[in-house]
Every structure is written in structure tokens, then in C-alpha cells.
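Predict structure. Input: GNAT family N-acetyltransferase, 393 residues.
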Amino acid sequence: MEIRQMRADEFEERMALSQFAFQYQMTAEQIESRRSTYQAENDWGAFDEQGALLSALIIIPLESWVQGKNLKMGGIAGVATWPEARRQGCVSKLLVHSLETMKNNGQTISMLHPFAFSFYRKYGWEMTIERKKYTIETRQLPPRVETPGQVKRMTKPDFAELDDIYSSYASRYNGTLVRTQEWWENRILTQTGTVAVYYNEGNVPEGYVFYHIKDRTLTVHDWVSTNETSRKALWTFIGNHDSMFDQMTITASADDPVPFLLPDPRIKQEVIPYFMTRIVDAEAFVRLYPWAPGEREEAVIISLTDSHASWNNGVYRLNWSKEGLARIERLEGAAASESEGISCDIQALAAMLTGNRKPSLLHEVGWISGSEENIALLERRIPERTAYLMDFF
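Output follows.
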């Protein structure tokens, strides 16, 4: 079996595999449109001895927000295998190869949307992002209130203005994407609907909603409120459509407070496990990670295991300055005892650093081991920040 990048002349074969695996059919026009944007260098395939394509996946070069800092991230997508090649280890080899590729690309983390969480957990990805989906009947909408400023519909969406609002909001979470102009134009604004922006009294944009109404249902594609005034103004704007729909659907972050703020909080709510994250290069990621400040310089020893990225295996001394700057040092030939440090695998590390899972919780459920003192130290140094992703890839 050979693992290599796809070639431009293998585009049709790749599209045939994707359409079969994900059960959709593209028109000739759609295929030609896709061809014009196809980036073979991001597409990796597993081929048999005769050169036939068996499996493939895409590594999308992206950036995501982590603790207020944007980091290079490899987005895994389009994982597909022909049925006759399944259960032969093709995807396993592709995933392991992708880790080395992402490491060489400086992508210290990776994210993906799994068909099965249990499958990707075997390769070091962990569920870090949950979302809430609301279905709200018209009678349950928040009361309309007077707010300063105004909400204006955009006749032609301005991605630059929208991105300024979005970036201010997205940087408050872990896992949100840094959206490029191409992403806005090809992934967001291609959806059918209306964009409305809230401007404060000084005409500064502070929130927006992108929505569509069809068959008496209002669907929110994208909603960003950077403060309470913009939130109230946008809900009032949506409420002014009440004669046009019977219910609305909206997806929100796991910490979204809307039900608590509604007069009638008995709306339909679903908590949906959404995306998984993996730390590709632990040493590099820990150096880039914005840690919380402390009262003094502190250190802890971490014994880390990773079954599919051998470069992450080892015992490390993690030092923090009072200000929260980190240094990490590999201790060659060392082994950490429970009294000296913390032991965990790469999944637990991702859950703690990107998924807002507290070390004390992971210790309680047996995912990490160590003394209570060291667990508490690590917990103090990890800033609390909800994980959220508004996009899909």
C-alpha cells in the first residue's frame, strides 16, 4: 500500500469515491466548479500495488482560536474508503500519516467531525465541542425591547465587516475557526438567507444574524452578539418577523444563557456532541498555549503517552512563570511517580487544554493520575474557556 498526495489528474476518481461514500450526487456543472477549486496537495490517498485508489482524506490548512490566540490547525475531512477496501487498515495508515504531515506543517492541533466518536478516539482525537440546538416557538420568543442604535439588513453582505464582528466573538472560545475571505465567500455566504447587522449609537457594528425563513420555520445560519445590547436588539429584530414563522431553530454554544433569560424557558433543547480535537505536537502546542498567571513560578512533571504519534511520548517538566509563560523540558529516561507528577494520554491532554474539561474531573473518572496537589496546580494554570465551533468541514 502506498500513501501519497493525490494528483490533479485523479480528481474524477476522488469525486467518485466521495459521492459514493457520502451518498450524494453532483451535477456536471457542480463537478467542474469543484475542479476549479480542487487542491490536490491537501488530499491524501491510499493506493494498492496497481495504483488504484482505496481510501482518501483531506487535511484542510486552517487556524483556530485557542485561549484567545489563533493557532495553525489541520482539519481532517472527506475520509472515505471503497467498500472492497474496508477493514484493511487503509484509514488507519492515512490517519497516522496525517499526524506526521501536520506536525511537519506546524499544525500543532487537529479537529474533525466524526462518523463515530469511538473510531477516532482510537487514534487520539477526543470529543471537545458540544453545541446546543434550540427550537423556539413564536410565542416563546424574548419580549421586544427598545435598544440604542439600530439593526440594518445588508443588501450585499460585506464579509470584512462581518468578520470583524465574528472575530471579536470567536476569540472568546476555544475551537472556533479563523475565517478567511475564501471561507466566508465559499462556506458561509453561499447559503440562502438574509444578513442583518446591529450598529450601536456610534454606528459601530457589534452583532449580526444570518437567517432564512421557509415553510413557516426561521432557521438561523449564523448569530453573533458581542454584548448584551446587541443580543437584545437582534432578538427584537427576529421578533418583528413573528407573523412569518411558527418556530425558529438556532445553534448556540454549550454555555449559552438564552433559556434562562426567556420568560418561558421550556423550549426544546438538544445538547449535541459535535467535533473532536487532537494535539498533534504536544511540546510545540504547550509552548504556544496561553496559560493562566499564578502567584509565583511553579512546575509540574507530566508523563504523556500517545499510541500513534511517538514524538509525544515522554516525561516532561512544565514550568510556568508568575505571568503564565510556559517552558517545557523533556526529561530523557525519566519516569514520573504519582507523587511527583501527572500521568495522562494525549486525549486527556486535549480534553483539558482545548475542551474545558477540568483536571479534577478527569482525575475523578480515572482518565489522569497524580497527587491532588499536582492536579490542583494544573487546574489553576488552565484558563476556563468554553469550546465552541460555529462551522462545519
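The first strand starts at residue 2 and ends at 5.
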